[in-house]
Amino acid sequence: MNTKLLLFLLFVLFLFPACAKKNTAPAETELATEKQTQTKKVLVFTKTLGWRHKSIETGVATIKDFGKTHNFVVEHTEDSTHFSTAFLPQYDAIVFLSTTGNVLDDDAQKKFEKYIQGGGSYLGIHAAADTEYDWPWYGKLVGGYFESHPNDPNIRKATIIKTTNKHRSTSHFETSFSRDDEWYNYKEINPEITALLNLDETSYEGGTNGKKHPIAWYHLYDGGKAFYTGGGHTKESYNEVGFRKHLEEAMLWCLE
């Protein structure tokens, strides 16, 4: 073999691996980018202009735990400017965790409506129903507004009845069970909701909704989906196995 041919073969051997590496790099980058885009993202909103629940921080930590377990990103804010076209489209679900009062201005409200109309998901927890009384669209989204709750004490044990409507968030519960929480009475309940859990008003004092007293429900609304649970007033709620599982499965339903 002459010297020129040998040099040519050596050049080819060194050139081809280098080209192969260059050709596979973009593919690897595309796969990494695709994997990143598959990660779900949740915004937990906790702005309050009324009563401030001491359990909010515990609730945020709980949802972050769910994110670690199920591989979705959780961001927490009390900044209503996140309700804009620059932020909202990146989230797969928006959680209103014990928000109170009129927390969004007119522009933010319109942006949030468009988010839901575009197929977005909403999860309301406890005082999310004590929010935005002057915004009828929101009232229908959450499924009902807070009207009152028992006092002295406001935390009391009640029996909860599981409805026959099947849902992943309530499948672990017995047909009836008891727990302690602050039990809301509701007004302007959206007739389109699907009740999952009802309070048995004969088991405690202070209920005003009668035989049909929903305390957790879901529905499809204006192009999107919404879930609400009335539990979660206390810090202890988020350490209860049953309630924690209920909230976790509700969050996963919103991300389906």
Automatic annotation (TrEMBL):
Show the InterPro entries listed in the entry. Class_I_gatase-like, ThuA-like
> At the top level of its lineage, which domain of life is listed?
Bacteria
In terms of Pfam families, this protein maps to: ThuA
User: So which residues are the signal peptide here?
Assistant: 1-20
Q: Known Gene3D superfamilies for this protein?
A: 3.40.50.880
Q: Which UniProt keywords apply?
A: Signal
Q: Does the keyword Metal-binding apply?
A: no
Residues covered by the ThuA-like domain = 41-254
Q: What is this protein called?
A: ThuA domain-containing protein
- Organism in which the protein naturally occurs: Dokdonia ponticola
